[in-house]
Specification:
This protein is α+β, with helices and mostly antiparallel strands and 519 residues long. It has 14 helices and 24 strands. It folds into four domains: 2-160, tt1808, chain A; 182-233, no CATH class; 245-355, no CATH class; 366-518, 2-Layer Sandwich (Yope Regulator, Chain: A). The protein is elongated and about 90 Å long.
Length: 519
């Protein structure tokens, strides 16, 4: 695709050097469109067609691209030495709206793609391309607008995805601006709970607070990089493992129920499962009907069965690592934990829009301002959602605390749901108190593989080996201050609580009722 871009743009580069007249530039652009497969003799490249607008008015777009008599997109041409004006963009917008076209292209001193998003006052600029052989997005332009690949549905889908990416970047920029303006307060407040948790057994809160007061934190823009960086004292934060990066991608792999390889995009947080990956040929038992249907479609389209193995036959891109993990594993999976980079570090350390590994703390914007109020509201919503399913008969009254217990029918063994506002995660765990650990845990441990299969996930067993109480816990990392991610976390916790309740209540009832009756 990049070679086609170079052939497409080369004559335009020469025109720009000579600053040719618009008519000459226009003619060369039409010639180059044939490289993308559009054919003027089939009336697919239409030169300055006069089109009636109403009873008296007419318009004359510079270039219209048509297929089988239906307009596909419009191009506004200006001299290669032009400087774009608002009026020229308005002219292109007028053509797009009169002809009801979703996409228009401006070609002058640069190439610019515009999208007419429904119910907006003006068209939106999605991106600009330099008239240059080495323009990195040239291949993408060719892919989008070649006759072989172009469809209206595909171009609209691309535009919507690009808009979402732009909105995410705008939100990230606001956070960066806030960090620059309030770096001292935000970094100090974020470090304080981290340091108390890590060093609180050795130093008092007053000593740690006093140490922080003696430090100065500064956030500045890096002139060599459009993203902002934060300057911090090196000894305070332990560094994360590093991995080999090529551009903005991370090579990664997944081994649960599969032998899959992927490419994680640091910019848009998408993950592409690569051709040749071996994935689970069956669904896990607890997969939802909707997820089963979706995965069946993907298996049919993107995989083949070879020698009893389900092999991915072409690269397939997912919006998130979790979507990719569910496709590979065969059911519910947290892709941020399942996918590992080349050093074995899970992708959760890269879960930020600028692609930097996360530190072991969150900035103030990512923490809720009133934890007790938040926890009460969280557990109230959780209980309501859980009650609505009718799956669990008895539920306790919510309290402003970071846990919510669900009984499974036996003393000293229960489900302990967690909402951690400091570290931004929720979790569901089977909690076995030390009074009955010897009765329950060894037998459950002996059936670990069967239980994991029934759960459709791989929880962490015995998360704290030194403790007398034992747990089997499944985590979900999130941002609780984000309303959308909060709802996703609630839905995830409800779903997993029901699965844990179903599996472990049955395990306890079937395998241990005789033992507990003897006690």
């Amino acid at each position: 695709m990049q070679e086609t871009w170079k052939r497409f743009v080369y004559p335009l580069i020469e025109d720009k050097k000579l600053d040719v007249e618009e008519e000459t530039y226009h003619r060369h652009i039409e010639n180059q469109l044939m490289l993308l497969g559009w054919e003027p003799w089939k009336e697919e490249i239409i030169h300055k067609q006069s089109i009636r607008i109403g009873n008296r008015n007419r318009m004359e777009p510079d270039i219209l691209i048509s297929r089988e008599g239906e307009y596909q997109f419009v191009i506004e041409v200006k001299r290669p030495g032009n400087t774009q004006t608002k009026e020229e963009v308005t002219q292109l917008e007028s053509y797009m709206r009169q002809l009801r076209l979703d996409v228009g292209i401006y070609i002058g001193e640069h190439i610019e793609i515009f999208y007419d998003k429904p119910n907006t006052s003006h068209v939106v600029s999605l991106f600009r391309l330099a008239i240059d052989l080495e323009e990195k997005r040239g291949a993408r332009f060719v892919d989008l607008f070649s006759k072989e690949k172009f469809t209206k549905a595909e171009i609209v889908a691309f535009c919507e995805e690009r808009l979402q990416e732009m909105e995410r970047q705008a939100s990230l920029n606001k956070i960066k601006e806030s960090l620059i303006a309030n770096a001292q307060i935000q970094i100090t407040e974020s470090l304080r709970p981290y340091l108390l948790d890590k060093y609180g057994s050795s130093f008092s809160e007053e000593e740690i607070q006093g140490m922080l007061a003696q430090l100065r934190f500064i956030a500045t823009k890096n002139d060599d990089n459009p993203s902002e960086v934060i300057t911090m004292p090196k000894p305070l934060i332990e560094s994360k493992p590093t991995t080999t990066q090529t551009g903005n991608i991370i090579k990664c792999y997944l081994t649960r129920n599969a032998n899959a390889h992927g490419i994680f995009n640091l910019t848009d947080q998408s993950l592409t499962v690569l051709k040749g990956s071996v994935i689970n040929s069956v669904h896990v038992p607890k997969i939802s009907d909707a997820a089963r249907r979706k995965r069946d479609q993907l298996l049919a389209e993107y995989t083949d069965e070879i020698d009893g193995k389900r092999i991915v036959k072409e690269d397939i891109c997912f919006d998130t690592p979790s979507g990719a993990a569910q496709f590979c594993v065969g059911g519910s999976a947290n892709g941020w934990n399942e996918w590992k980079d080349e050093n074995g570090c899970n992708l959760n350390v890269y879960r930020v829009n600028d692609g930097s590994p996360k530190t072991e703390f969150s900035f103030a914007e990512n923490r809720v301002s009133d934890p007790r109020k938040f926890q009460l509201e969280f557990w109230t919503k959780f209980k309501a959602k859980l009650e609505a399913t009718g799956k669990i008969p008895t539920l306790q009254t919510p309290q402003p605390q970071n846990w919510y217990d669900v009984r499974i029918g036996r003393s000293n063994i229960l489900l302990n749901n967690v909402c951690n506002t400091q570290k931004n995660f929720v979790a569901v765990k089977l909690y076995i108190r030390n009074q009955v650990v010897d009765v329950y845990y060894p037998a459950l441990e002996a059936r670990r593989n069967e239980i994991n299969q029934a759960l459709g996930s791989e929880p962490k067993w015995d998360a704290n080996p030194s403790a007398k109480d034992k747990t089997i816990v499944l985590y979900h990392q999130t941002v609780l201050s984000d309303p959308v991610k909060l709802e996703e976390a609630l839905d995830w916790l409800v779903e997993q609580t029901i699965i844990f309740y179903s599996v472990f209540s049955e395990e306890v009832k079937r395998n241990f009722s005789s033992l507990t009756s003897k006690r």
